[in-house]
TrEMBL record:
Peptidase S1 domain mapped to chain residues: 1-74
Keyword Transcription included in the entry's annotation: no
Annotated InterPro entries: Peptidase_S1_PA, Peptidase_S1_PA_chymotrypsin, Trypsin_dom
Gene Ontology process terms (BP): proteolysis
GO MF annotation terms: serine-type endopeptidase activity
Annotated keywords: Disulfide bond
The protein's name: HGFL protein
Length: 76
């Protein structure tokens, strides 16, 4: 809850025409191919109410939350 830690987000875009994430796509993945494996690097943040033209989507860096994710998964 609350704001993401400083440096936790990064903007990313697939192309100059597709800079913003569609409204309602919160939690969508940002995956990068690394050594022939897809790695989840981020998820789309709901920080913006809707997509804005010429602005990249805001992603939350997953690596900052790995410990929390593992803790929650152990509780399930």
């Amino acid at each position: 809850r609350g704001e993401a830690p400083r440096g936790a987000s990064r903007g990313a875009a697939a192309s100059r025409r597709a800079l913003a994430a569609p409204q309602g796509d919160y939690g969508g993945p940002l995956a990068c191919l690394s050594h022939d494996c897809w790695v989840l690097e981020g998820v789309i943040s709901p920080a913006r109410v809707c997509a804005r033209a010429n602005q990249p989507a805001l992603f939350i860096r997953v690596s900052l939350y790995v410990d929390w994710i593992h803790k929650v998964m152990r509780m399930l």
